[in-house]
Design goal:
386 residues; alpha/beta; Aspartate Aminotransferase, domain 2; Aspartate Aminotransferase, domain 1; 2 domains; globular
Length: 386
């Protein structure tokens, strides 16, 4: 492709997905659509590693988070919000907007959560209905320990509701095995589909709480969506048909590669990118031990204004990436490497950033950087797997 899309989202779309979207519409109350919806839903369950109900809405990831809130709670319900970045805070603010009583537990941006402290909070507040938790903090490139969080929640009578927008399909996430009650993701990240679909997996325990929720809802009503799917294999309202075409193709590609191979590819390409960037003299924002495998954050090179840096890479090298958010604005930059990403894209990213450093009269050993990047890839993954 001419443009190198290395954004934290939306991500690059495979040719199969682009082609699928050009198909003619079908009636969403017809059998052909029901077959499409069932196929996509069942394949999504394989990627979610769940036997739970899985429902699809036309929405962004933020819409998916709002779906979780309005269906799970009643005004005044107490929830624990664990955050260490922008998107954890967003989940919290949605809950507050609906009158949910939010207990806040913050950790430094770019650092791991303190799980002993989380457990202590749950012991202190016995009436907490749920924990709002971000699996992969897109704003910092920190991968939070969802498995550990699942182990903690088993000892408490509360739901575990997880923002998996930038993790599902790129990071290991075993919904049922890890005891996650609601998993929310969207189409435009590791699932290699354009923006516009919110995907929500719901456990039996979550359904029991949903049935008691009194927060207002109409379009976002999970019970209504569940009823339509069970009774007619359809959606309550008009679905995003073209996006479902694209998602159908993306899921076929993921399952053909093998989901565990997908996880491995993301992990190895992340290591390779980080090593190449370090060889260029650019420091990762977070240590490898807590690093995301779908989005990496790096300190902005000193002496180069971020806007000039980004504009140069976009205009001259056609490399699209993102800056820092909130308190990290102009301090870090972020490279997305999830979904439709391969070794050539990683190498091109390292090469383009190295060339940009040279263009700004900084020393950058591109040859060593590219050699180290390729070495990690060749040692840990065969080219067939890429």
């Amino acid at each position: 492709m001419d443009e190198l899309i290395m954004l934290p989202g939306p991500t690059a779309i495979p040719p199969e997905g682009l082609e699928a979207q050009s198909r003619q519409m079908i009636g969403h109350r017809e059998e052909a659509f029901s077959k499409l919806l069932v196929r996509v839903t069942e394949n999504l369950k394989k990627v979610f590693f769940t036997e739970n109900d899985l429902l699809i809405f036309p929405a962004s990831g933020t819409g998916g988070l709002e779906i979780a809130i309005v269906n799970s709670f009643s005004p005044g319900d107490k929830v624990l919000s664990v955050t260490n970045g922008v998107f954890g805070q967003r989940f919290r603010e949605i809950a507050k907007a609906y009158g949910v009583n939010v207990i806040e537990l913050d950790f430094p941006w770019g650092e791991p959560c303190d799980y002993d402290k989380i457990e202590n909070f749950l012991g202190k507040y016995q009436d907490i209905k749920a924990v709002l938790f971000t699996h992969n903090e897109t704003s910092t490139g920190v991968q939070n320990d969802l498995q550990r969080m699942g182990e903690i929640i088993k000892e408490h009578d509360a739901l575990l509701i997880v923002d998996a927008v930038s993790s599902l399909g790129g990071l290991p996430l075993y919904t049922d095995k890890w005891g996650v009650d609601m998993v929310i993701t969207s189409s435009q990240k590791a699932l290699m589909t354009p923006p516009g679909l919110a995907l929500v997996a719901v456990s039996p325990q979550a359904w029991r709480q949903i049935e008691q929720s009194t927060l207002p809802k109409f379009y976002w009503d999970l019970l209504k969506a569940k009823k339509y799917y069970e009774e007619s294999r359809q959606t309550p309202y008009t679905p995003a048909v073209s996006l479902l075409y694209a998602l159908d193709q993306a899921l076929k590609l993921i399952l053909k590669e093998g989901i565990e191979n997908v996880f491995k590819r993301h992990r190895v390409l992340t290591r390779a990118l980080r090593r190449g960037m370090e060889k260029l003299g650019i420091k990762p924002f977070v240590p490898w031990e807590i690093a995301s495998y779908t989005v990496s954050s790096f300190y902005q090179p000193e002496g180069i204004d971020f806007k000039d840096f980004k504009d140069h890479l976009v205009k001259k090298y056609k490399l699209h990436f993102a800056g820092g958010q909130g308190r990290l604005k102009d301090k870090i930059f972020r490279i997305g490497h999830m979904g439709y990403v391969n070794q050539e894209m990683i190498l091109k990213t390292v090469e383009s950033i190295g060339s940009t450093l040279e263009d700004f009269n900084f020393k950058a050993d591109k040859v060593s950087a590219l050699a180290e990047t390729e070495k990690i890839i060749s040692e840990e993954l065969s080219r067939n797997e890429l």
